[in-house]
Write a structure and sequence with these properties.
- The chain is of the alpha+beta class.
- It has 2 domains: 4-114, Beta Barrel (OB fold (Dihydrolipoamide Acetyltransferase, E2P)), CATH 2.40.50.140; 141-267, Tetracycline Repressor, domain 2, CATH 1.10.357.
- 52% of the residues lie in helices and 14% in strands.
- The chain has 11 helices and 5 strands; from the N terminus they run βββαββαααααααααα.
- It has a 5-stranded mixed barrel.
């Protein structure tokens, strides 16, 4: 069995890519979550793979992460869920969509996973990877401007990519942290606390360097900023047509920084060529 491909990305025609491995081209079907994070044509690429042999075809499926491949393998064990449906799931399909495609129930889908949190973990991991693509490698070294731009970029990514939007909607509005899914809560809480700690560190540095006494301590400022972003995202996912997510996020973060007496210049809307 072919477990991994490493070579040059020769072609991209969603959902298929062509990987050149020492002169041999492998056609690989990938979920859109992987496709969106592929490098440019001509660059090196590495994909974990799953090989499917049928009477009429031999198809290679590729994945950016081990969690993604494991979720795929669990899904195709379910009666009525074939590789194509599994790829759609990994591109952002909800569990209800899986059940409809398989002609079964959501409960039956959950039952087929040894770890009931595996599917949601894979979805959130892919969303996080996509949103983190433009972040500086050294997160400990980011400044206030980079933090602001990173937040706006994340909101813009969710607004622009349907699969990210669907994953976030599932994670925020549909997941119930009960039973075995309580383990998922612990993982999400860990990521939540890491984000807050990073924001607190950046805000503490900015407040200490400011010309005026800080109106609140950095821990409270970080929690307030996180609540602001999460509330905005929660509202937008309920009604995406109500407002422009990145523009509203930029304005909200700028107003929060201004209220703290900090420079909100990094959150200013880009000037038009005629402005």
């Amino acid at each position: 069995m072919i477990g991994r491909l490493q070579g040059t990305l020769a072609e991209k025609n969603p959902p298929q890519v062509l990987v050149d491995c020492n002169g041999v081209g492998y056609e690989v079907d990938v979920p859109m979550s992987t496709f969106y994070n592929l490098p440019a044509l001509g660059d090196k690429v590495s994909l974990l793979t799953h090989f499917v042999v049928r009477e009429d075809a031999q198809i290679l499926y590729g994945f950016a992460t081990a969690a993604e491949r494991e979720a795929f393998r669990q899904l195709i064990k379910i009666s009525g869920v074939g590789p194509r449906t599994a790829l759609s799931v990994l591109s952002g399909m909800s569990v209800a969509d899986i059940a409809q495609a398989a002609g079964t129930t959501r409960g039956a889908i959950y039952w087929h996973f040894a770890d009931k949190a595996a599917l949601f973990d894979a979805m959130v991991e892919r969303a996080t990877a996509a949103l983190a693509a433009d972040r500086p490698e050294d997160q400990a070294a980011i400044d206030l401007g980079q933090m602001c731009l990173g937040l706006v970029s994340a909101l813009d990514g969710i607004a622009r990519h349907p699969h990210l939007r669907r994953v976030m909607r599932i994670a925020i509005h549909r997941v119930e942290y009960v039973g075995e899914l309580d383990a998922l809560r612990a993982r999400h809480l860990s990521a939540h606390r890491a984000w807050t700690a990073r924001s607190e560190r950046v805000l503490a540095q900015a407040l200490a360097a400011g010309p005026h006494p800080a109106p609140m301590d950095s821990a409270l400022a970080a929690r307030g900023l996180q609540a602001l972003i999460e509330g905005l995202l929660h509202s937008w996912l309920l009604d995406p047509d109500a407002f422009d997510l990145p523009d509203a996020g930029r304005a909200a973060v700028a107003n929060w920084l201004r209220g703290l007496g900090l420079d909100d210049g990094a959150c200013a809307a880009p000037q038009s060529p005629n402005g």
